[in-house]
Design brief:
heterodimer, A: 123 residues, alpha+beta, 2 domains, 3-stranded antiparallel β-sheet, B: 259 residues, 9-stranded mixed β-sheet, 5-stranded antiparallel β-sheet, 2 helices, elongated
Chain lengths: 123, 259
């Protein structure tokens, strides 16, 4: 093999570099679909509006003047969140007493994926 | 052989034909190796890629079922490619069912012989099945099984409430699909039971030994939900619930319109 012209060996080298780069990119793409799936899932699963809604309703129901209405509304909040939002909601309140002028409401929300606890204080 | 007119110095005994032969042999050996080992490896990679894609698809379908059941969306449609195997709907009337579930307390059965039906991907070349059943995605290979995505059952420790969501798949007979297709699902009837249980609650899980997903469910019942296993004769498995003061069982019917 006399007198081979090896000036263009860089073409072969580039070929190798490009093929290895493609290989790694393929691995990355393969992994990224799984990551995107789980992230999107986590975002769509988070019940932000559900919690806000339930929380707002609980606080409003606490200040209903009619005691009967209040019991009915609060029972319905529990039932509706279980049947529509698939979440266990529980709450209890402490009305102002003694020197403490505030109303406290303990709110508990759990839908199996997200659990949320809050002690709300009227201000 | 005629003497060459031009010859570079220091290249005595160098033969072009031997060089050619060497390169040619190397190339042939390369091609041979690729066809012998590379091609089967590529095919294997393809099947495992198909399986992985299908696992992902099943999780997408599970999300659809979740939307239907828990978010009260009436209708869902997903296009997917089913490669290297077949996707089959075994509806809840199919016999033998892959599993039956009975939930009972001191007063008797609350849910009796619930059959979920399942949407199963059966890989053609490997002995693997991925199945969407009762809101969970489970994978099986021979006797071993694993849960890829859990159903939305949960135990709220603060209120001691157990919420169980049973998803029942119905369809117009047995349906199967290969290649690109659309899965259309609609929400059917729902049932809502709110129980104050009498004494302890037990769940009886009976599996079909030919399609045995018991390991996956066993792990889920014991590790995730904190149940304890009570000895029973296989293929029946009995688990006792953690202390529960309120039991909520929701049953959803998901109708698979087409595959």
């Amino acid at each position: 093999m006399a007198r081979l012209n090896d000036d263009a060996q860089w073409i072969v080298l580039m070929g190798f570099v490009v093929s290895f780069a493609l290989f790694f990119i393929a691995i990355l793409i393969n992994q990224s679909t799984v990551v995107g799936q789980t992230t999107a899932e986590a975002v769509s699963e988070f019940p932000k509006t559900d919690i806000r809604e339930v929380r707002g309703m609980i606080i409003r129901s606490e200040f209903l003047s009619d005691e009967n209405d209040k019991t009915t509304v609060q029972r319905e909040i529990r039932n509706l969140s279980l049947s529509r939002h698939n979440a266990v909601v529980n709450f209890s309140s402490n009305r102002p007493g003694g020197l403490d002028p505030y109303t406290y409401i303990e709110i508990h929300y759990n839908n199996g994926v997200t659990a949320y606890n809050e002690t709300w204080r009227s201000e | 052989m005629t003497k060459r007119i031009f010859q570079a110095s220091g290249s005595d005994g160098v033969s072009e034909s031997i060089g050619f032969l060497l390169i040619f042999t190397l190339m042939m050996a390369g091609i041979g190796l690729v066809t012998l080992y590379g091609y089967p490896m590529l095919m294997q990679q393809q099947t495992s890629a198909d399986e992985q894609i299908m696992e992902k698809n099943m999780i997408v379908l599970q999300n659809d079922v979740k939307s239907l059941a828990y978010k009260t969306v009436p209708y869902k449609e997903t296009s997917l490619k089913i490669g290297g195997g077949v996707l089959t709907v075994y509806n809840s009337l199919h016999t033998p069912p892959s599993s039956t579930i009975t939930i009972r307390d001191g007063s008797g059965a609350i849910v009796e012989d619930f059959k979920s039906g399942d949407l199963t991907y059966d890989s053609a070349s490997t002995n693997t099945e991925v199945s969407l059943q009762n809101g969970a995605v489970v994978k099986r290979q021979n006797l071993g099984s694993v849960m890829l995505a859990e159903p939305r059952w949960f135990y709220d420790g603060q209120t001691k409430t157990m919420v169980i969501n049973l998803v029942n798949l119905t369809s117009n007979g047995l349906m199967a699909k290969h290649g690109i297709g659309t899965v259309q699902m609609a929400l059917g009837e729902t049932r809502f039971d709110d129980h104050v249980p009498l004494n302890d609650i037990y769940i009886d899980y009976t599996y079909d030994p030919d399609r045995d997903y018991s390991t996956a469910w066993d792990n889920y019942f014991r590790n995730t939900l904190g149940m304890t296993q009570i000895p029973a004769t296989e293929p029946l498995r009995t688990y006792k619930f953690p202390p529960t003061s309120r039991l909520v069982i929701k049953q959803y019917e998901v109708i698979i319109r087409s595959l």
